[in-house]
Amino acid sequence: MAKRVRLLDVAKAAGVSQGTASNAFGKPDLVRKEVRERILEVAKELGYRGPHVMARMLRTGKAGALGVVFPDNLEYAFSDPVAIELLRGVGRECARQAVNMMIISAENPEQAITAINNAAVDAFLVHCYSDDNDIISAIQRRNQPLVCIDTDIAGAAGTVVLDDFAGAQMAAQHLIDCGARKFAILSLQANKAENFGPMNAKRRGAVSHRVVRERLGGYHAALKKAGIAIEDIVHIECENMSSHSAEMVETMLRDHPEIDGILAMSDVIAIGALDGARAAGRKIPDDLKVIGFDGIAEGERTDPPLSSIRQDSVEKGRLAAEMALGEAESDSRVLETSLLVRGSTR
Amino acid sequence: MAKRVRLLDVAKAAGVSQGTASNAFGKPDLVRKEVRERILEVAKELGYRGPHVMARMLRTGKAGALGVVFPDNLEYAFSDPVAIELLRGVGRECARQAVNMMIISAENPEQAITAINNAAVDAFLVHCYSDDNDIISAIQRRNQPLVCIDTDIAGAAGTVVLDDFAGAQMAAQHLIDCGARKFAILSLQANKAENFGPMNAKRRGAVSHRVVRERLGGYHAALKKAGIAIEDIVHIECENMSSHSAEMVETMLRDHPEIDGILAMSDVIAIGALDGARAAGRKIPDDLKVIGFDGIAEGERTDPPLSSIRQDSVEKGRLAAEMALGEAESDSRVLETSLLVRGSTR
DNA sequence: GTGCAATAATGAATCGATTCAATGAATGCA
DNA sequence: TGCATTCATTGAATCGATTCATTATTGCAC
């Protein structure tokens, strides 16, 4: 293979200094028009392909890219509807700022750390639930701006979270207003260690995932206020997959026929719950009210359409990107939620 | 800000050559254990953050990333279910090969070209419909492996496409088998220039998007064989959005009450068609059969569930990534489709 | 014609690693 | 003891740009 044509070669051939040749490409207004044109012409003749990206990066220190990390589960980034909305928002802001989007990919945590160390980016965005994490430390070691989404980590440059507590409270209050009295909570995974199924008090007390902790707190607060004892609530921890929650709910409803209100921590789980309830012979919303969390588009098409707590995940991603790229005003934002009433509670 | 600690600083402090220090990090087995440990220790003391990514890239010429470009519409990449599956596949392969995934982001074609020129990647993957494209040229100018998905472009290192013709043929044949005789085809955008609505013969003759050309050809072939004249088919070009196709279909069904079979070039369009047909008072599948294309998961939950031509978009993305990263056997692959019969044609 | 400012161009230093031919030391074998 | 071989280390060259202090040129006003 022929040796790559360098800027220096172009400069020599055009009879100008390397500095001028560089400016002809990067800062055209610093070079006299005719000189610049000659340089570009010579460049074309020699087959120069434009400034070498890596060399420029090394010199300028700018990568022109934002790193996006999903430590908990990487396949999840392109599967979960909420994660996808998040990515859409990140992409939107990156496009606005003319910065590329580097998705850190890995099959396991160890690989992820290597991937992080090899990524030429200017800042990191990390979406995760747990806050104790080798991956987070690896990012922090790079000493670049880091914005955390959905969790608050000490030392992060910024944080974007939801007011999960208030949202959950709203959800539970809504079910109470609809007349439900016997509740089941379908929780997202609460800890690093998987432990799906009924959730005992001990595990409820040791929730390391911020989102789960807050939402659980919000549910409990509203229910308590309505005079419902926490011990009377059925807690189940579900994988964030409709098929999984469907199974769980079907079983659960057979064991606890009295349940008339289901609080699901995600719409994906809630959609499965609708299926499970149908399989267990319940009529929704007559026998049983179900409310999800997130307000994803799929919730419009379920049978019946799913009530939920709407969050703006696109904006969440966009905002986080904006922060990471250093254009945001504050370094910590809490987004609000709103109640979305549809057929599953009406 | 204190000056960054360089490898050279570490080497000096540890009393070894820079080469040895480099090896201590990059090729540990070339350095005696005690020496390596001392180097690492000194590095930690000095606050050395590990080899500088950009410097390494410049020297080695490897970026450790795969560029992914969506020239037609960038927001689309995180909106369309099929594009997302594609990304999932790409992500899977990238993870397997320990390579990051650089999503080229831009708001307009001009910006996209800059973004491409600024991206430190080892290869490119491009998903697009049209084959004449400034963006493609920009990528080709970089002289790196380029794999095209869903279109075949001269000079690409590889191509991954679907047997769209056969799939479309299968779809049309299925509707014929179900007894439909009066057809409407809901096409994806056929050309760079947007022109949604009824599609005249002239526009049908000048389809620049390969996918549309092939699928249209497949539909026509099957219908012709069944003795249906092309002129009797209603052609409508839709935006790939359910809400848009719903409107189009509702209007279309009022103008053409005889239609009893709808061939949609995507499931997204088909799902809108179900809504539009319902709004126009049709019963599916009794009055009207509808079949989509792609076989996306959402099709299971529509009312009625959507028949479709299934394609494995995840595998399409994975395979393309594999090719681009240079591990695939061949440089051109055509994937097969299969018929997915559900409620909308039964 | 002189002085001053503005504009162009120069060329060497720099960004921070990796690589590789050369050298030195240590080991194995006859 | 001598020679070949292996293992560890060195140090300079290299990857390919950008930057910036300096010099050269031009234009303009008085």
Characterization of the model:
The structure is a homodimer of 346-residue chains. The first copy, chain A, is α/β, with parallel strands linked by helices and 346 residues long. The first copy, chain A, has three domains: 7-60, 434 Repressor (Amino-terminal Domain) (Orthogonal Bundle), CATH 1.10.260; 65-162 and 315-322, Rossmann fold, CATH 3.40.50.2300; 164-311 and 338-345, Rossmann fold (3-Layer(aba) Sandwich). Helix content of chain A is 42%, strand content 15%. Chain A contains 13 helices and 13 strands. Chain A has helices at residues 7-14, 18-26, 33-46, 53-60, 81-96, 109-117, 134-141, 164-177, 201-205, 210-225, 242-255, 267-279, 313-324; strands at residues 65-69, 100-103, 123-127, 146-149, 158-162, 183-187, 197-198, 234-237, 261-264, 289-291, 308-310, 332-335, 338-340. Chain A has a six-stranded parallel sheet, with helices on both faces. In chain A, strands 7-8-6-9-10 form a five-stranded mixed sheet, sandwiched between helices. A two-stranded antiparallel ribbon of chain A has the order 11-13. In chain A, helix 5 links the parallel strand 1 and strand 2 (100-103). In chain A, helix 1 (7-14) packs across helix 2 (18-26), helix 6 packs parallel to helix 7 (134-141) and helix 11 packs across helix 12 (267-279). The longest helix of chain A is centred in the first third of the chain and has 16 residues, at 81-96. Chain A is elongated and about 90 Å long. The first copy, chain A, starts with 6 loop residues before the first helix and ends in a 6-residue tail after the last strand. At the A-B interface, helix 4, helix 5, strand 2 and helix 6 of A face helix 4, helix 5, strand 2 and helix 6 of B. Strand 2 of chain A pairs antiparallel with strand 2 (100-103) of chain B. Chain A binds a DNA duplex (30 and 30 nucleotides) through residues 4, 6-8, 16-20, 22-23, 26, 30-32, 35, 51-61. Chains A, B: One of its GO terms (molecular function) is transcription cis-regulatory region binding. Chains A, B: Keywords: DNA-binding, Transcription, Transcription regulation.
